[in-house]
Amino acid sequence: MKFNSLILFLSFHFVFQAQEQIKTTLLDSLEIDNISFFEKQKETSYYSKNNVFYKIANGKTQNYNNFSLGNINHIDLYNPLQVVLFYKDFNTIVLLDSQLNETHKIEGNNLESLLNFDCIGLAIQNQIWFYDFTNQKIGLYNFNANTFQFKSTPLTQKIKDYTTDYNYFYWIDENNISAVISVYGNIKTLGKIPQYDAVQIVSNENYLIRRANLLYLFKLGENKMYEIHISEKSFNKFYYKNGFLSIFTPNKVINYKILLP
Questions:
Q1: Residues 118/161, Cβ–Cβ less than 8 Å
Q2: In angstroms, what CA-CA distances link 33 with 40, 84, 231?
Q3: Strands 20-22, 224-228: parallel, antiparallel or unpaired by DSSP?
Q4: Which of 204, 199, 209, 205 minimizes the C-alpha distance to 219?
Q5: How far apart are CA 97 and CA 103, in angstroms?
Q6: What pTM, to 2 d.p., does this model score?
Q7: Based on CB atoms within 10 Å of each CB, which residue in 18, 189, 226, 242 is the most buried?
Q8: What count of other Cβ atoms lies within 10 Å of the Cβ of residue 227?
Q9: Are 94 and 87 in contact (CB under 8 A)?
């Protein structure tokens, strides 16, 4: 057992020590205090601050707030024409159009069959991915028909981190095992992820990992780390999408252009 533990330690040690470095190009920085989310899409920027969600496009700023629902716990911009906000404290999902007008409000406590949302994301064909922490199942909710369908049996481990797209729900469990389920209910275990302080699942192959104030790309198939070069020695959070990397410090967000291998 001790020998196996030593081999496991050395293998992870090798992964972290043998990394190559990924270069980045600094784009800009914005001085915004207490920002909790930022995403840049071409000439449009989105961010949240003090539980208000903002969109800046062509010099015009729009915002949406619903303070009665508490904190915004998750923002899904997979489709900017259908923004998804999740207010976990009130078990509520809000959908917004491109002008940040509210189009749907899904209140899990008021549904005919109670759902306790824990993880959510936009799916295909007017559906929302969700994980119900009471049933411990992943499902799809149709917000036009107000119907839902569970797609998994109860999970044996809690979900620690996750991401979604139209067709797939990816997650990492308490044992750092990564898995994915399709809209058809097919589940596949992808592999084990190294220990981390924070993670973003980019795809079934790529994972951005913060560890000891350093940022890495972990490629699961290669079991290899690539250190990402950024100038910040201390940062709170990070976010990547479509070649843009945002680094959050207490009073600003720094944006980089990056090409992942």
A1: no
A2: 17, 23, 19
A3: parallel
A4: 205
A5: 7
A6: 0.89
A7: 226
A8: 14
A9: yes
For 59, residues 6+ apart whose C-beta sits below 8 A from its C-beta are: none
Cβ-count burial 24-60 (b if 16+ within 10 Å, e if not): beeeeebeeeebbbbbbeeeebbbbbebebbbbeeee
**Where would I find the H helices in the chain?**
2-17
For residue 191, what are the contacts with CB-CB under 8 A and spacing of at least 6? 177, 178, 220
Q: Scanning the structure block, which residue is given the tokens 């005919």?
A: 112
The 10s digit of each residue's pLDDT in 97-141 is 999 999 999 999 999 899 999 999 999 999 999 999 999 999 999
User: Could you give the CA distance from residue 190 to residue 204 in angstroms, rounded to a whole number?
Assistant: 7
Give the residue from 105, 104, 135 showing the smallest Cα distance to 119. 135
Tally the residues of the chain.
Answer: 261
Confidence band (pLDDT; 50, 70, 90) for 4?
Answer: very low
Q: Which DSSP category does 155 fall into?
A: P
Residues 6+ apart with CB under 8 A from 186: none
Q: Is residue 141 a contact partner of residue 106, using CB atoms and an 8 Å limit?
A: yes
